[in-house]
Amino acid sequence: MSETTTHSILGTPVEMPVQVRTATAFMGVFSVPAARAQALIAPTGLDILRYRPGRGLCTLVFVDYVDGDLGPYNEFGVCFLVRDHERAGGGVAQDVRQLVTGGAGALIHRLPVDGEFTLAAGRGIWGFPKTLADFDADHRGNIKRGSVSADGALIAKLTVAPGIGLPGKGIAASLAAYSHLDGTTRRTTWSMNPSGVRTRPGGATLELGSHPIADELRSLGLPRRALVTSSIPDLKMTFGDATRVTS
């Protein structure tokens, strides 16, 4: 029988794996210059995945965690698709194969949240770069809207138009989630089970503010037309323990 890992977060035990029983999410996927994105993530030791020559993929996502082991909270993620750290190198063809076969990973580059407990757990257990922020998000309307601000400055506002429903449960996946904090890169197994997924080409309106995260996104050529947008009204997730990749 495998041994269960338990972490103590702010005096509260958190048993692994962490379960998210109910969440909703909406997101936009944007094409960004691979060289600029690579410069941003250089300290991680990871490589941006190139879906075509010179271009990488950046996802902006709002998540409302309704019921989970870390309690309810809102989250905004800035994520880059990256190569599996054990299969670095290669060209666009190899990168596309990783993308199609599920071998790519998602680097969680920025992760503002609005809860102290999830901030402590995210940083302490997985090395996720969680920071405190303020949210105003509507996950229930036909048009999804989210706004995130920190330190009195707007980071981003994202609006996602309705998409077309995918058959069945949509796409269930087990991904490698990478993080980098305090000089250490970590890899976490992240399983998702979504229902009611709706998606479409384009469909995003993005406004950037004056916060440093907004400036970072602006350096990637955003705002621009999204390649694709999606909304997930019912999302279940499981997070395992993190393993160290580099230090």
Structure description:
The chain is 15% helix and 53% strand. The chain is mainly beta.
> Helical segment tally?
4
Shape: globular
**N- to C-terminal separation?**
31 Å
Helix content: 10-25%
- Broad structural category: mainly beta
Main β-sheet description: 7 strands, mixed, barrel
**How much is the radius of gyration in Å?**
17 Å
Oligomer: single chain
Give me the count of strands: 16
Mean pLDDT: 93
Order of helices and strands: EEEHEEHEHEEEEEEEEEHE
Characteristics:
single chain; 247 residues; mainly beta; seven-stranded mixed β-barrel; four-stranded antiparallel sheet
Topology (SSEs and partners):
Elements: E1 6-9, E2 12-15, E3 18-33, H1 34-41, E4 55-68, E5 73-82, H2 92-101, E6 105-113, H3 116-126, E7 130-132, E8 134-138, E9 144-150, E10 153-160, E11 164-165, E12 173-181, E13 184-195, E14 198-201, E15 204-208, H4 212-218, E16 228-246
Parallel strand pairs: 6-7, 6-12
Antiparallel strand pairs: 1-2, 3-4, 3-16, 4-5, 5-6, 8-9, 9-10, 10-15, 11-14, 12-13, 13-16, 14-16
